[in-house]
Design brief:
Blueprint: E1 8-12, H1 18-27, E2 33-37, H2 49-65, E3 70-73, H3 76-89, E4 94-95, H4 101-107, E5 112-117, H5 119-122, H6 125-134, E6 139-144, H7 148-153, H8 160-176, E7 180-183, H9 192-199, E8 204-206, H10 209-222, E9 235-239, H11 243-254, E10 260-262
Parallel strand pairs: 1-2, 1-3, 2-9, 3-4, 5-6, 5-7, 7-8, 9-10
The structure holds D-glutamic acid.
Length: 265
Amino acid sequence: MPNRDSPIGVLDSGVGGLSVLREIRSQLPHEHLLYVADSKHAPWGDKAVEEIRRRARTIADFLLGQDAKAIVIASNTGTAAAAETLRTTLPVPVIAMEPAVKPAAAATKTGVIGVLVTVATSESDRFRSLLERFGSHATVITQAAPGLVERVEAGDLFGARTRELVERYTRPFVEGGADTIVLGSTHYPFLRPLIADVVGDHVTLIDTGAAVARQVQRVLQTSNLRNDSGRPGSFRIWTSGDLATSQPVIQKLWGISVEVSPFSN
Ligand code: DGL
């Protein structure tokens, strides 16, 4: 049975969820963290719902096997496909996420927001219902961005190919007068400097990493699972991708040296 000292399990299709993991680490420094990057199967955003669900389940089961006391789906795409199933079947709390349409609709001054998401997220019922609930407070321009997650997986945050995609996908936002852009995949916060450079500083970019970390904190508190040892937490990272390729990218995005283990499920 997991207890307060057990780790939190975090998962994503690849390295994107590290943008959530860094917020969890900064808000909950005493928690032990486990992270699985499913880079071999990235992007999830181009896959069928059933397949994403299967991958999320396989990884969640692995994390439970590592004694995880809670599972964080650090993926908008993973949430749209698998949150409901995981919530109803896993024996621990599941924290999920959605694109920040609500805060963006509250923040916009022009009344127009842009939402950058994966194809699977854009086609999901969950996203449709999110737009129905909060989309009426603003004009919402949704743009799916195939190919962009792969640039982050390759660690290419500023290159010409990445810039070209960012320019293409943000053009409808700029032309439509959006002053707020939702970074609706956990991979996109790593492109924040490039996106800001392309759309200009007057446009606000919103992601949900910090909000997810606050939610993790709340859930652990109410479940009496908060680690209150006062000692610094550890972290371990696995990837299903090729280690030689993945390790340097993870290192680059995580910012400090970290050993990455192979995940072969
Ligand atoms: N990083 C994930 C998300 O938040 C998945 C992206 C993908 O693999 O397509 O949507």
